[in-house]
Amino acid sequence: MEAGDAGNGSAAAAQIKGSGDDASCKPLPPCCVKAKAGVPEAEAKCHDTVVSGWFTEPQSRFGKTSKVQYYNNPMWPGEAHSLKVEKILYQGKSPYQEILVFESSTYGNVLVLDGIVQLTDKDECAYQEMVTHLPLCSIPSPKNVLVVGGGDGGVLREIARHDSVETIDICEIDQLVIDVCKEFFPNLSMGFKDPRVRLHVGDAVDFLRDSPEGKYDAIIVDSSDPIGPAQALVEKPFIQTIARALKAGGVLCNLAESMWLHTHLIQDMLSICRQTFKGGVHYAWTSVPTYPSGVIGFLLCAKEGPPVNFLTPVNPIEKIQGATKAGKELRFYNSEIHRAAFVLPTFVRRELESYTTCSTSTEKEKPKESVSKSQKIKILLNNAILTAS
């Protein structure tokens, strides 16, 4: 996963650049401001990193107090999801981020970067399997795949189920994340053992800029939240660089935040992606209990070329030889949940439909001969699926 950043300053002071070609600045929404240990709601620290914690002093049977640690995610003001900490397993700092691993009482080992839960033993499957198989099962026989971020190895593990894949490149900026996950998350880092994997430690922007045009069938961006250093991974120049590295008809799967908390980010990302990917843009989602609001979304994008139908897996995982054999069983993904992932709740459909209609109406008028070729965003009311055509 790409580096995160526990940025300084208050919500009012934090700013981000407007999406698309709009160069104006606007305040960063409170839900996207990473709190630091020094702000009021994060004052109680349970260890020496920037992660804040809650402490309780319960009475024991013998009348003595015993300190209990809880992990509290500080990124979303006004909300908290606490995990009981049984033991701190690792805490350290790389040149890019704070890294914490602890053993929880209910979710197994937990990886935290810059105060944000990245994965747990219990529910990592819901993320790793979906972010991988939604794109790879939507195209026939993918051969060359790139993972941006993904230093825990979970996405590599899932890509390795596809016997058609010949090369798996991974570009992870933080070597320490890789090393820590190899020690504390062996069921994920096993992905690095596949002989098709080629590890590149460095900046993904530079790596993709130097990659040959049309090299990859699929690119999976397994990054942290799109603020701080990772913000570049959802901006138009990087998205265009990804499109250049994809073959005609190649696909991108990019994280697209929570529909309960971040529709403004989803709207911005959707706008950027639909300007670049003419083969189709879809929003999908899955349930991950330890992520804020319990869900995470994905943008599935196809480069113009051979048609891609994300809604129905053309390369179903159940028919891939050895993909689900004993010892390699899937825990979350299947072809039915693939189709269901693109069905949107009514409020999400409404907000995205309203935004795309509004943004389309404000575009400058184009020459008459090019109007028929312009991209349109549609919400299919019968099954609530967002699509670009």
Q: Any overview of this molecule?
A:
It is a single chain. This protein has 389 residues and is an alpha+beta fold. The chain has two domains: 15-119, Spermidine Synthase, Chain: A, domain 2 (Roll), CATH 2.30.140; 124-361 and 370-388, 3-Layer(aba) Sandwich (Rossmann fold). 23% of the residues lie in helices and 26% in strands. The protein contains ten helices and 17 strands. It has helices spanning 124-136, 154-159, 175-184, 186-189, 204-209, 236-245, 263-276, 335-340, 346-361, 368-371, and strands at 15-17, 25-27, 53-56, 68-72, 82-93, 98-104, 109-113, 116-120, 144-149, 167-172, 197-201, 216-222, 246-255, 280-287, 295-302, 377-380, 385-388. A seven-stranded mixed sheet has the order 11-10-9-12-13-15-14, sandwiched between helices. The protein has a six-stranded antiparallel sheet with strand order 3-4-5-6-7-8, covered by helices on one side. Strands 1-2 form a two-stranded antiparallel ribbon. α7 (263-276) crosses α9 (346-361). The longest helix has 16 residues, at 346-361. The chain is globular, with a radius of gyration of 21 Å. Mean pLDDT is 79; it is low at 2-26, 28-61 and 360-389.
